[in-house]
Design brief:
209 residues; Mannose-Binding Protein A, Chain A; rod-shaped
Length: 209
């Protein structure tokens, strides 16, 4: 085990494996009051434990290093109404439950600052991941932009084609009266020719020519 300052804990805290920081308050308080004190002290909580090794570490700090002679609140409540809370004891039974309104010393626990530190290698990996994500985002933007440009080109081509067709239709409409006039004159002349041809045939029959 190591002392707090060397393991990323604040002054007065002990570190467990460099992951957790614990501080013992010798002053006695109810479980609820102990929770409030821990929360106001660096946003800590009443100490909990993950395995028997951590329990024994707390007991070592409490009864051997700091030489406390009474029970110590740790995280844990028992029964449906949560009227009984967990205490470290110096007896063979490491953890026992007592009425939460009793007053005992208590242990507060907070995350070790060292645990949250990143190594240079971790930082490099994080930067690489961020850079790769940025590259992917830029590539996606490029693809989307290219797609939009192609859509605009297609739209422009469609509009140009429509305008050309419309212009040709207008030109055809402008030429229509001239063509009609020519056709009318053609039919008029044809009719006159037919009439003249008919008179010539009638005259020849009557012996006038």
């Amino acid at each position: 085990y190591c002392f707090v300052i060397a393991c990323g804990c604040e002054k007065g805290f002990f570190s467990f494996k460099g992951r957790q920081c614990v501080k013992l308050f010798e002053a006695k308080a109810t479980y609820q009051m102990a929770e409030m004190v821990c929360k106001n002290y660096g946003n800590a909580t009443i100490a909990w434990f993950e395995d028997i090794e951590e329990v024994e570490f707390y007991r070592l700090i409490t009864y051997n290093v700091l030489n406390i002679k009474n029970n110590v609140w740790v995280n844990g409540k028992f029964d449906e109404n949560y009227k009984h809370c967990a205490c470290l004891t110096e007896s063979e039974e490491s953890v026992q439950f007592f009425n939460c309104d009793e007053k005992h010393s208590f242990l507060c626990k907070q995350q070790s600052k060292q645990e949250n530190r990143l190594s240079l290698e971790d930082v490099e990996k994080l930067i690489d991941r961020k850079f790769n994500k940025l590259q992917e985002a830029i590539e996606m933007q490029r693809i989307n932009l290219t797609t939009e440009i192609e859509k605009l080109k297609t739209l422009h081509l469609g509009i140009s084609t429509a305008l050309a067709v419309s212009e040709n239709a207008d030109n055809s409409s402008n030429n229509l009266p001239l063509t009609s006039s020519v056709m009318q004159r053609f039919f008029y002349i044809s009719e006159k020719i037919d009439k003249c041809a008919g008179k010539y045939h009638f005259a020849s029959l009557m012996g006038f020519i």
